[in-house]
């Protein structure tokens, strides 16, 4: 009945249709409702199980007869007991009346608080149901394969707008004074987690039509001017996905809603997608290139879910990874098509690297793993699901070929329209389309954690390839944890004369022959593995560094640095590669170098700091000299980002006096209200000013945070406050995390303070002394983020706190995100070992 899982509902009764009525007033703590659920009786039973959390059910009837109600809070189940069993093979109706409180934890049906244009505090009610939040708003069969149709009616204050998944078909004054009843068109069959209700003082743009679908951006008053970009992206995305999937958009409308308080980036509710304001609303004239790309990515990601997730849904939460990974894959392709100059698959290398940096730790996990309790599902929303999952899908597409891959995905979707599927169903469809061993190959990537290290050894007329698991903590005494042991690796190789080779590398070594040297392994850079070239091969590749493709250069730098951290190659090898980047113009390669230099700066003694500064200057100053600090009309998207990366490195690592002075000049212009930095340099300028700023700069940024021009402006200035180095200023900021800073942003601020080398220990002390208050204040999915910068505590003073850090978290457990915290602590061990090896020795390497 429950597959031996006490959190699963009985399948004796399954839903067909919900008639749901909710009375919601955002200014009142309590909401109420009633519902009639049409169900199909599969087995004779007098006991009906639904999910409910923190909901009071005041009345229950089944087929018009009263029924008793009991609650199993541990398993989030409410039981409806009849005196006589229902007959198998029949239909029945469940009627329930219930009430609950609007939540404050950004989950379920919750309250979002914001200041209107006049500075007056206002409230809206909104939803976040994925994974299992619907049961916090109304009793329901809250499992993804228990799909049904929904007819929603909302009773709300007449002065407010009310939005749900499907278009409103009728509204009329309610029997309650000053309230209106909104009735919405019945939805297609879908899972409970995709339902949405939003009630507040909202404004909607005039609909734009995308392949016959009306699209709107809905926002709080005064933000109309920030909506045009998202509308253009949404129009593009619908057309792109309809063509790619060869299936029409599945709902009659698409509303994109900007929510002031939102725990995630966005949520793919069918026809009513909710977003953080910073992921949707933007002034294109003020935004930076990366900010525009992020909004495009998020909008495309959520619209991709309308097909992959909403139309065809995973059977159970172990399939979240495929839902999110595939949407990330489609998002990247759609954004790349929106503006090919962005080269999105190349810039995705940075995101993939973040996942691999986690995946080399003992507490990594398989991409897909068993989900038992609802809290287990929450652990899937991480880099391994989104970025590693997307990476292995992209690698498979490259292996099978784009058209073959499309054919398999289309077959999969058409076979499961309006239904549910398992991961294996997609592999089967791709196998049928390609006649390749997709299941065997993908199981080695999906069902075990970690990723391989492919070693390339020289042979007289080629190279030998072999694989071992990559491990950052690679001592014999270190735990292996969830890191696997053998993969089927689709290796693409390339000679620099253009000759390409392909081989499927398993446990047995493979030999690649070549007419010319060197041989580039992971040609094109799509493979989800690290590469280690032997000392006979690496110098030959380094000499031809500029001839490598962008992702090949990126991987060479990133893989070598990872091997340095794993104590498998010397720091000198990495520094030699860094020196080849003095003529580099790609922002992704430069970002990897910059982050590596930032780590060197943290372990450097005062005497060694000058050498890190010199290396940083040698690498990044030529680019700034060539591009100039001021934006130009000829800038490409990548030029804009490259300038920002170089400006940041020179301003924060190298303390370059010219960059510092330019940052201060732009900041003074911003303070005066005339001029200021471009959107691409805004974050770099604020970080540079904050590093050297005092009370007056802090006061301006604080005021700008409280009175922003737009949501991105608010976030920029908030995070920059954490970059000030005076303890007195940071001690003013830290208490705000527990009060005036939005709960959705608090973890980001604390994370950045701890990462601030000058005041990180102050942030650490605050986190330890206010641990319980932080857990009560922050959204559960942000707990791990609050402590995510602990690995940066490796400076000559802060590394001495490491034993206290490990001891604290042995006795203080997180109620959510425990695995992610374990990964953070393991990354800390990696960085501490790096410090032990190289602190005090940098002079001999960098001189």
TrEMBL record:
<comment type="similarity">
    <text>Belongs to the peptidase M1 family.</text>
</comment>
<dbReference type="InterPro" id="IPR050344">
    <property type="entry name" value="Peptidase_M1_aminopeptidases"/>
</dbReference>
<dbReference type="InterPro" id="IPR034016">
    <property type="entry name" value="M1_APN-typ"/>
</dbReference>
<dbReference type="InterPro" id="IPR045357">
    <property type="entry name" value="Aminopeptidase_N-like_N"/>
</dbReference>
<dbReference type="GO" id="GO:0005615">
    <property type="term" value="C:extracellular space"/>
</dbReference>
<keyword id="KW-0862">Zinc</keyword>
<keyword id="KW-0378">Hydrolase</keyword>
<keyword id="KW-0479">Metal-binding</keyword>
<keyword id="KW-0031">Aminopeptidase</keyword>
<dbReference type="GO" id="GO:0008270">
    <property type="term" value="F:zinc ion binding"/>
</dbReference>
<keyword id="KW-0482">Metalloprotease</keyword>
<dbReference type="InterPro" id="IPR001930">
    <property type="entry name" value="Peptidase_M1"/>
</dbReference>
<dbReference type="InterPro" id="IPR027268">
    <property type="entry name" value="Peptidase_M4/M1_CTD_sf"/>
</dbReference>
<dbReference type="GO" id="GO:0042277">
    <property type="term" value="F:peptide binding"/>
</dbReference>
<dbReference type="GO" id="GO:0005737">
    <property type="term" value="C:cytoplasm"/>
</dbReference>
<dbReference type="GO" id="GO:0043171">
    <property type="term" value="P:peptide catabolic process"/>
</dbReference>
<dbReference type="InterPro" id="IPR042097">
    <property type="entry name" value="Aminopeptidase_N-like_N_sf"/>
</dbReference>
<feature type="active site" description="Proton acceptor">
    <location>
        <position position="302"/>
    </location>
</feature>
<protein>
    <recommendedName>
        <fullName>Aminopeptidase</fullName>
        <ecNumber>3.4.11.-</ecNumber>
    </recommendedName>
</protein>
<dbReference type="Pfam" id="PF17900">
    <property type="entry name" value="Peptidase_M1_N"/>
</dbReference>
<dbReference type="Pfam" id="PF11838">
    <property type="entry name" value="ERAP1_C"/>
</dbReference>
<dbReference type="InterPro" id="IPR014782">
    <property type="entry name" value="Peptidase_M1_dom"/>
</dbReference>
<dbReference type="InterPro" id="IPR024571">
    <property type="entry name" value="ERAP1-like_C_dom"/>
</dbReference>
<dbReference type="GO" id="GO:0016285">
    <property type="term" value="F:alanyl aminopeptidase activity"/>
</dbReference>
<feature type="binding site">
    <location>
        <position position="324"/>
    </location>
    <ligand>
        <name>Zn(2+)</name>
    </ligand>
</feature>
<keyword id="KW-0645">Protease</keyword>
<feature type="domain" description="Aminopeptidase N-like N-terminal">
    <location>
        <begin position="15"/>
        <end position="194"/>
    </location>
</feature>
<feature type="binding site">
    <location>
        <position position="305"/>
    </location>
    <ligand>
        <name>Zn(2+)</name>
    </ligand>
</feature>
<dbReference type="Pfam" id="PF01433">
    <property type="entry name" value="Peptidase_M1"/>
</dbReference>
<feature type="site" description="Transition state stabilizer">
    <location>
        <position position="386"/>
    </location>
</feature>
<dbReference type="GO" id="GO:0016020">
    <property type="term" value="C:membrane"/>
</dbReference>
<dbReference type="GO" id="GO:0070006">
    <property type="term" value="F:metalloaminopeptidase activity"/>
</dbReference>
<feature type="binding site">
    <location>
        <position position="301"/>
    </location>
    <ligand>
        <name>Zn(2+)</name>
    </ligand>
</feature>
<feature type="domain" description="Peptidase M1 membrane alanine aminopeptidase">
    <location>
        <begin position="229"/>
        <end position="445"/>
    </location>
</feature>
<feature type="domain" description="ERAP1-like C-terminal">
    <location>
        <begin position="519"/>
        <end position="829"/>
    </location>
</feature>
<dbReference type="GO" id="GO:0006508">
    <property type="term" value="P:proteolysis"/>
</dbReference>
């Amino acid at each position: 009945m429950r597959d031996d899982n006490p959190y699963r509902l009985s399948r004796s009764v399954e839903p067909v249709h919900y008639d749901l009525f909710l009375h919601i007033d955002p200014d009142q703590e309590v909401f109420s409702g009633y519902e009639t659920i049409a169900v199909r009786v599969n087995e004779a039973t007098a006991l009906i199980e639904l999910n409910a959390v923190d909901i009071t059910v005041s009345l229950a009837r089944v087929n018009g007869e009263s029924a008793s109600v009991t609650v199993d809070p541990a398993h989030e189940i409410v039981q409806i007991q009849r005196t006589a069993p229902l007959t198998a093979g029949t239909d029945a109706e469940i009627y329930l009346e219930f009430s609950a409180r609007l939540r404050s934890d950004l989950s379920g049906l919750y309250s979002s608080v914001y200041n209107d244009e006049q500075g007056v505090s206002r409230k809206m009610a909104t939803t976040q149901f994925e994974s299992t939040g619907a049961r916090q708003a109304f009793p329901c069969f809250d499992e993804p394969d228990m799909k049904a149709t929904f007819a929603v009616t909302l009773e709300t204050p007449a002065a407010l707008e009310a939005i749900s998944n499907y278009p409103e078909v009728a509204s009329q004054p309610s029997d309650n004074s000053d309230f209106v009843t909104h009735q919405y068109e019945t939805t297609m069959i879908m899972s409970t987690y995709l339902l949405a209700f939003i009630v507040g003082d909202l404004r909607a743009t005039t609909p734009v039509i995308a392949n016959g679908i009306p699209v709107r951006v809905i926002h709080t008053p005064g933000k109309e001017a920030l909506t045009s970009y998202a509308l253009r992206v949404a129009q593009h995305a619908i057309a792109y996905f309809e063509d790619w999937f060869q299936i029409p958009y599945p709902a009659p409308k698409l509303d994109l809603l900007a929510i002031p308080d939102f725990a995630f980036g966005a949520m793919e509710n069918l026809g009513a997608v909710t977003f953080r304001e910073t992921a949707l609303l933007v002034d294109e004239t003020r935004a930076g290139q990366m900010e525009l790309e992020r909004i495009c990515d998020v909008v495309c990601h959520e619209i991709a879910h309308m097909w992959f997730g909403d139309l065809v849904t995973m059977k159970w939460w172990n399939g979240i990874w495929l839902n999110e990974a595939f949407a990330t894959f489609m998002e990247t392709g759609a954004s790349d098509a929106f503006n090919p100059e962005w080269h999105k698959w190349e810039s995705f290398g940075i995101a993939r690297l973040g996942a691999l940096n986690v995946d080399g730790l003992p507490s990594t996990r398989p991409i897909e793993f068993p989900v038992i309790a609802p809290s287990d599902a929450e652990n899937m929303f991480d880099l391994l699901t989104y970025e590693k999952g997307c990476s292995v899908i992209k690698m498979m597409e490259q292996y099978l070929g784009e058209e073959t891959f499309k054919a398999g995905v289309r077959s999969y979707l058409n076979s499961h329209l309006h239904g549910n599927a398992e991961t294996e169903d997609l592999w089967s469809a791709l196998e049928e389309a390609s006649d390749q061993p997709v299941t065997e190959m993908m199981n080695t990537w999906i069902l075990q954690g970690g990723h391989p290290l492919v070693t390339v050894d020289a042979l007289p007329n080629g190279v030998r390839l072999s694989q071992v698991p990559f491990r950052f903590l690679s001592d014999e005494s270190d735990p292996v944890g969830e890191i696997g042991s053998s993969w089927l690796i689709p290796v693409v190789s390339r000679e620099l004369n253009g000759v390409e080779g392909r081989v499927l590398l398993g446990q047995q070594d493979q030999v690649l022959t070549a007419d010319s040297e060197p041989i580039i392994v992971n040609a094109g850079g799509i493979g989800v593995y690290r590469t280690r070239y032997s000392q006979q091969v690496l110098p030959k590749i380094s000499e031809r560094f500029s001839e490598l493709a962008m992702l090949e250069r990126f991987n060479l730098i990133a893989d070598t640095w990872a091997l340095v951290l794993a104590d498998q190659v010397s720091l000198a090898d990495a520094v030699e590669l860094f020196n080849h980047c003095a003529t580099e113009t790609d922002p992704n390669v430069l970002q990897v170098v910059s982050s590596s230099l930032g780590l060197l700066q943290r372990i450097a003694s005062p005497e060694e700091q000058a050498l890190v500064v010199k290396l940083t200057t040698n690498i990044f100053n030529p680019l700034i000299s060539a591009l100039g600090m001021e934006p130009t009309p000829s800038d490409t998207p990548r030029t804009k980002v490259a300038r920002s990366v170089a400006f940041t490195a020179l301003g924060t690592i190298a303390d370059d006096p010219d960059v510092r002075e330019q940052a201060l000049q732009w900041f003074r212009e911003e303070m005066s209200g005339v001029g200021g930095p471009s959107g691409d340099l805004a974050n770099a300028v604020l970080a540079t000013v904050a590093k050297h700023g005092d009370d007056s700069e802090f006061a301006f940024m604080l005021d700008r945070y409280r009175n922003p021009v737009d949501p991105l402006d608010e976030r920029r200035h908030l995070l920059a406050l954490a970059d000030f180095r005076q303890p007195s200023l940071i001690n003013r900021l830290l208490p705000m995390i527990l009060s005036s800073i939005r709960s959705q942003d608090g973890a980001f601020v604390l994370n950045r303070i701890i990462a601030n080398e000058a005041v990180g220990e102050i942030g650490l002390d605050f986190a330890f002394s206010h641990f319980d208050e932080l857990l009560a204040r922050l959204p559960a999915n942000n707990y791990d983020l609050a402590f995510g910068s602990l690995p940066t505590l490796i400076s000559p003073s802060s590394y001495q706190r490491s034993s206290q850090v490990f001891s604290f978290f042995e006795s203080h457990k997180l109620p959510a995100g425990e695995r992610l915290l374990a990964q953070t602590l393991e990354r800390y061990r990696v960085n501490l070992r790096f410090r032990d090896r190289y602190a005090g020795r940098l002079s001999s390497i960098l001189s």
